[in-house]
Amino acid sequence: MKRLIALLTLLLLVSPTYAVDVNNPVDWVLAPMKFITNPLFTVTEYAVAGFYEAYDYMNSLVFGEDVALMLNNTVVNQTLEEKRDFKEYDFTTDSKQLLDLLKEKTASEMVVYTVDTSGNNDITTRLYAPDKIYGYSAFPTKLSITKCTGDSFHVTNVKIYVKSNNNSEIKYYLLDKTYNQTFNQLENAYDSEYEIEGSDTVDTIMKAPDTHSVRVRDFTANANVDYSDIEEILSSNVEPFEIYYEVHGHIEKWVEYTVTGDDGVQREVRKRQDIQVDHLGNTNGLDGRIKNGNYMIGSFSKGSLPVDYLESDGDKLIPYESVCQGSTSNILSVLWSSPVNAVNRSPDMRYVYIDNCGELFTRAGVPAKIYDDVAIVTLRETTNHEIEISSKKAIQKGYFTSVDPIQIYTSYTANNEEDLLDFTTYGIVYGEITRTDGVKIPVWTINKPTIFVYGSERTVAGQTLEELDDLRSLSEWDESSRERVLNILVSTNNSLNNKIATAENYKEKAEIASSSKAIDCADKAIENYKEGTVLLTELHNSFIKLYESTDYNNENKIEEVDDTLEIVRVYEVAGDEFLKASKLYTYGKDEQAEQVEKDAKDLTEKSAVPIFGNGGLIDNTNQFIECWILKIPIIGESLNNLIKNIPFGYVTLITLGLIIVIYQNRSSVSKSYRRYKRRY
Q: What positions does the domain T26-6p immunoglobulin-like occupy (predicted)?
């Protein structure tokens, strides 16, 4: 008997962690395979399931048929909002935190570069530039020129430029600095010239070779974006390059000699005969300092909410995870959007970008100000792979400050949702840094957020929840109210069955396209829709029992209906997303499909059962026992209230009882242990 008590106690403690349905034939088919791989776990799992079935049977025998609405065991135990984990964000604080973190990661310092030199060696040169250059960025460059002898060195011209290793013919962002000098022919001397007495520096701004900046400028100028162009830019890499420089001048040299004039008089002559200096240099191995301009920013990547949530969540802002590319050492950006994104809706957005040039340019002697234009563009792609502009907003900003948030919006417009494949939104900033010689250096960034756009209609479950609004305030449901609920549940179930039929059509298209991933996603969509219909059928059957009873009290009934419909909505949205993934796979949009499929899987993924807290192991065990105690006549409620005041309630009592049983039988336990040791 004591062993039986201990076993039942163990079953009570572990039972909430198992979710086997003994009425499901699939689970029984899988049972032999489970037993082979893990016999102890399988026996325990099915014993617990049988224990619950026995409980239900005994409950009906002792207390009669229960017409209360009971939720079936399901892996989904949270609402869609809870599943998506839409926490409250502080737009200003979180934007700064996200961008400051990235700013810290991309920070650079000026260092001496390794250079190869040729030509005249009467001078030496050193080149300074940042230790890290991210993407298609402008960067400060400092050329130090030092004379090697005591003679004066006069510089006449300095050139600094960038050459791509792939095309050495083009000199990018050429600085051609000429030093004015005046030579007096009569005096055979310079009236004015620039002299380097010891060492001198030439400070300027260079940039990585960039064949994309003109197209990015056009994107912001007229907001007309070509999909293939912008995607090519996003996935591009900076060409390897080196910095080249030329120093031209002359070293001041004098010769002295004696000449005899026509009059026979000798005179000392001192004449200037300068040595021409042509000193060339270039960096070696700069590609080791070039970092990819791609970066991820934003802390949210779990999809969106359908239009059901427009009233409750439409005004919120979420920092969507984005893929970015561009002049990352100069501009960083993060894009915020409403979490409610649906066809023919225009969600609010905040596009925040910062000047990432920082103090590095100032310390290098070339403070930079960026004059910028901004655009938010959304493209719409159809199943015919025609790509059109759904929305475009262009703003000419002028010089921007350290942090520039722009309040803006986009629009997801479509006349025919059946032909719609996908929406893609881009945030684009194009700017220019004006160098001291008047040359404009282009800098830019492109931000592509991962935003899932739902259809224009509310979910079936969401519409049902709205239809039940006026019934929530009723303390009692009369026969007409019950009949109305029954009709609504039947209609909801029919609508989900229509979605199953749609998913089956998509599966046929996927089979024609021979896309195994599309077929799999269509199957998962059907599976999730069916999960919703099962819950609705159970709820409907419970209501039929309620309809036949004389219990008109509405207490707890509407909550049970709402809870069930919230879970149905999660399954429905998961089905919708699997269906969208199937469509994307079918039409070759694998990258987008993988993200949508992942979001759908996350919705129906079984949550780990915690030990403590609401919904935890201890809480579930206490609720399970409480159901029995409350049905004890007269004393049940008082006893339950008393035990609930004990920390951890019934679990504490069971644990103490188990400890007492083991303690009282410690001698037999010890003997059994010694026999076990001798045997093994």
A: 121-255
CA 392, CA 426: separation in Å to the nearest integer? 10
Phi, psi of 620 (to 5 degrees): -65, -40
In a domain, 229, yes or no: no
**Structural domains counted in the chain:** 3
C-alpha 410: how far from chain center: 19
Which pairs with CB-CB distance under 8 Å and at least 24 residues apart come from 385-393? 385/421, 385/587, 387/227, 389/223, 389/224, 389/225, 390/414, 390/423, 391/346, 392/223, 392/224, 392/225, 393/223
223: in domain: no
Q: Give 168-224 pLDDT, tens digit per residue.
A: 889 999 999 998 776 666 555 665 677 777 788 999 999 999 999 999 999 988 767
Q: Distance of alpha carbon 587 from its chain centroid, rounded?
A: 24
Cβ proximity of 47 and 22 under 8 Å: no
Query: Would residue 632 count as lying in a domain?
Result: no
Residue 360: which domain range?
292-449
The Cβ of residue 32 has, within 10 Å, a number of other Cβ atoms equal to 9
Q: Is the pTM of this model over 0.70?
A: yes
What's 325's domain CATH number?
2.60.40
Q: Is 639 inside a domain boundary?
A: no
Residues 358 and 416 in one domain: yes
Range 558-562, long-range pairs (CB < 8 A, 24+ positions)? 558/468, 558/471, 558/472, 560/68, 560/69, 560/70, 560/71, 561/69, 561/468, 561/485, 562/465, 562/468
